[in-house]
Inverse folding.
């Protein structure tokens, strides 16, 4: 075993952490536009938008059939860029055509020619023909864009992904939506920009792709037949991805049925805020998958173990301050958007706490994929689907938003536990290494004064903010020192 962190993987993760910081800074514009839209379209329109967006994203996950991770995995399995390009172009052709088929089926279902699902039909009065056409036309654009962006990871071209996802696409969607809210086109003010942003994202992703890979566009395959090895890798992920995507959106679908679209409106904003944490973690998923995939299939190495722990440390060092922030100021911050959103403060704390707990085991899912043991992913995500479905059906009708947050959070934690157990059994050694997590626990103690003050002795808002800011400064100082120490040579792990 190496006596210090493997340099190439360690440097890649360090580069990824710097990208992650820049990535989250670049997201500064998106929250502004989202919050403006949530305010301008409050009263039902924003809720309907989030409800239908969930359905479109579910259809996209079906269309991709697991190929979004397959195109990352297969890059190292082909002899060169030309072989990779042939496999990739066929995958894109298939996904684009399959997306069109799904969009046409969804349009027929909405029109009443097929059995209706939930409120996704013209009789609900929530969508016009123009709206549904825009949403469904965006489906193939978004699915193809996802595949193109995934290939950028293979070139370690992280900045274009960041710019496109965090700056250009949100501005192209939510910027015009804000402007249209003050025009007679407000009724279509969310659907039209949604299509425009999706088309622009695909165009820029294609242009960046050919700049990175330096392959003539004339070499693009004219077939949609996916190579067998890519299909074998992706299909086990496809089924579980679809189930997971449905399970992730089940809370919104059930809230719309039992609590109404206004509850969906509040809950969707809370979920969007808490998903900041999940987005931080997911931005590392593909980085770690790339690191894990460089080992032989079925092998669990010390390099993989260290990369797992170091990646977890990097992500948690960003995520942890969000929990006391949501507890202390969540309701007040949500209320700044519109008064009705303030009722989601308690739900925000639940969602943030569950997302934080999930990070401890989430990367084990990428590790089993990198080892080629995708069946573990199928089992763990099957657990999520079963528990998420059961808990949401049990808790949402009774407890509304809080029930949805607890149901989704508990299901996620169980999924991480299954993946962690699987990799621990396969590797026959514990995954976690204490030296990566002790500094996080120590730094977290800095938030205790502000939390205890809220519980025992209510203080003026300015003083609460000061205590929280001081705790955050101490936490950052402790974790930065720990990061420097972890990058120094150290004795082999046991």
């Amino acid at each position: 075993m190496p006596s210090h962190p493997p340099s190439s993987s360690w440097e890649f993760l360090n580069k990824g952490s710097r990208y992650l910081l820049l990535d989250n800074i670049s997201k500064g514009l998106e929250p502004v536009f989202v919050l403006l839209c949530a305010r301008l379209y409050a009263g039902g329109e924003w809720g309907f938008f989030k409800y239908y967006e969930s359905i479109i994203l579910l259809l996209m996950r079906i269309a991709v059939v697991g190929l979004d991770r397959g195109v990352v995995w297969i890059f190292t399995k082909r002899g060169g860029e030309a072989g990779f390009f042939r496999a990739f172009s066929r995958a894109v052709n298939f996904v684009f055509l399959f997306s069109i088929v799904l969009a046409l089926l969804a349009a027929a279902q909405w029109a009443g020619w097929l059995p209706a699902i939930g409120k996704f039909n013209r009789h609900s009065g929530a969508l016009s023909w123009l709206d549904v056409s825009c949403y469904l036309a965006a489906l193939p654009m978004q699915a193809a864009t996802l595949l193109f962006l995934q290939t950028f990871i293979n070139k370690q071209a992280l900045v274009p992904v960041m710019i496109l996802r965090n700056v250009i696409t949100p501005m192209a969607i939510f910027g015009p939506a804000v402007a249209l809210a003050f025009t007679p086109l407000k009724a279509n003010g969310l659907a039209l920009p949604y299509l425009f942003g999706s088309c622009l994202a695909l165009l820029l992703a294609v242009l960046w792709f050919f700049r990175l890979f330096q392959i003539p566009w004339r070499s693009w395959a004219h077939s949609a037949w996916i190579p067998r090895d890519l299909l074998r890798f992706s299909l086990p992920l496809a089924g579980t991805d679809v189930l997971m995507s449905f399970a992730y959106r089940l809370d919104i679908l059930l809230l719309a049925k039992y609590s109404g679209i206004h509850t969906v409106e509040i809950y969707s904003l809370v979920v969007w805020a808490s998903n900041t944490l999940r987005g931080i973690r997911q931005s590392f998923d593909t980085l770690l998958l790339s690191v894990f995939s460089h080992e032989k299939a079925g092998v669990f190495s010390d390099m993989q173990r260290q990369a797992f722990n170091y990646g977890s440390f990097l992500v948690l060092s960003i995520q942890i301050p969000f929990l006391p922030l949501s507890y202390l100021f969540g309701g007040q911050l949500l209320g700044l958007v519109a008064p009705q959103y303030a009722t989601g403060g308690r739900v925000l704390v639940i969602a943030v706490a569950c997302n934080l707990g999930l990070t401890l085991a989430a990367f084990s899912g990428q590790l089993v994929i990198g080892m080629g043991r995708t069946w573990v992913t199928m089992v763990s995500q099957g657990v999520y689907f079963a528990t998420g479905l059961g808990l949401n059906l049990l808790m949402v009708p009774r407890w509304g938003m809080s029930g949805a947050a607890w149901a989704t959070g508990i299901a996620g934690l169980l999924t991480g536990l299954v993946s962690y157990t699987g990799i621990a059994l396969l590797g026959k050694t514990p995954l976690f290494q204490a030296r990566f997590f002790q500094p996080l626990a120590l730094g977290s103690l800095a938030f205790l004064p502000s939390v205890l003050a809220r519980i025992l002795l209510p203080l003026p808002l300015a003083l609460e903010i000061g205590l929280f800011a001081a705790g955050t400064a101490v936490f950052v100082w402790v974790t930065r020192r720990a990061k420097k120490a972890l990058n120094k040579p150290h004795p082999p792990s046991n």
In short: The longest helix spans residues 374-427. The CA atoms of residues 177 and 184 lie 12 Å apart. The mean pLDDT is 82. Residues 41-226 form one domain.
